Known about the structure:
single chain; 22 helices; 76% helix
Amino acid sequence: xxxxxAALTVLGLLVVYxxxxxxxxxxxxxxxxxxxxxxxxxxxxPVMVALIVSALLGGLHAGLGxxxxxxxxxxxxxxxxxxxxxxxxxxxxAVALARSGLxxxxxxxxxxxxxxxxxxxxxxxxxGLFGLFVAASFMxxxxxxxxxxxxxxxxxxxxxxxxxxxxxxxxxxxxxxxxMSASYLLLPTGFGAIYLNEILLPNFNEFGAAYxxxxxxxxxxxxMFWPVMGLIAGxxxxxxxxxxxxxxxxxxxxxxxxxxxxxxPTPVTLRPFQLxxxxxxxxxxxxxxxxxxxxxxxxxxGFLILTVAGNFRWNEQDDVFTTGLLMMAQxxxxxxxxxxxAGLLTATGQIDSLIAASADFIGDRQLLGVFLMLFVGxxxxxxxxxxFASVPILAPIYIPLAVELGLGPLAVMALLGAAAALGDAxxxxxTISLGATVGLAADGRHDxxxxxxxxxxxxxxxxxxxFAGIAVVLI
Length: 475
């Protein structure tokens, strides 16, 4: 049965659409598609379905018909499919690394270094753990591209130490979310290579070519520097101001993940040869990625080395790869469909009229226009929780509008990259938010919405919004 809020949302959209059509104030097809897409995402319709339905509605409203809409949609899927394939290969590498036992060994080593619950009382241990979380978050996106897979392995064994130190886990959630976001937004390796060089830069060049905009790889990190500094500022605010006070947690909930693991520990062993081969796989994967400018090739070579090393049985290769595929399938498919969505928006021919109307409304108030676009980007990404898929949706609209506002190439790239990234940390459906909760809630004492979503939304996004808006105007 359809929930009442969902039914009311759909009914409200139909009423508004009918009123505008009857009064002769026809809605712009691009606006219609985006509003419907966000509304469907907010009422928990699967993101892929929301993108397809809203894109087709926009195409039909623009007069393209079903065949024309499908042709425009399908014609733009190739770019997204290429990025999605890279995601799948990285997922396979992440699962292979998890099967190797390296992450478990690292977590146990950290737990021993931190000491037992009774020994872990000094501030040095607390700041050491915070530094570890930052380093692990950066490595998980750029050097050892396992994304959020390290969190449920590293964090649960340390919850006892964190409890003894009376650390507020909301601060840890902000550290994880801000650090993971900052790393892929700034450093062009691993997932940063996907976001900066395979998504942001190609979309910037594709939709900016008509306006004389040409982007280069060295522009990406320069454009994203100040927005990332906003993320760092938000993280520091959370640690030193918002959640600096001690917080006590009760014993693990009976039957929780941590309670089960403590009653039946599973020691992890890794033979010297396997350890050497695992480290070699990481090094070779990074080398191939840099040498050939392809994360796909690097991840594939790393996966093959781990297979030969014997970290898992030869006949388990297919299972490992399939598990990685399933882990990244949602993101890969969403990115692919988002490319079709962007292509259909362009095919409607109504982006120019939207840009002109927006430019007339904003006038010469450049700062207002910049913050308005950042807020819209935040709203869209919050809807389906993925910054990678937001870029192709925003690019055909934001680049022309930014040029109309008189922004330079670097400022346009910063605006597009930041607008798409806003909301990734803090969205209830974001992999970053979900990953943080999985690790911190292993004992059943951490709530996803109150302790992860709200703190990360406020601290990650407010800082980034302010820094990005001011930087775009001043660049």
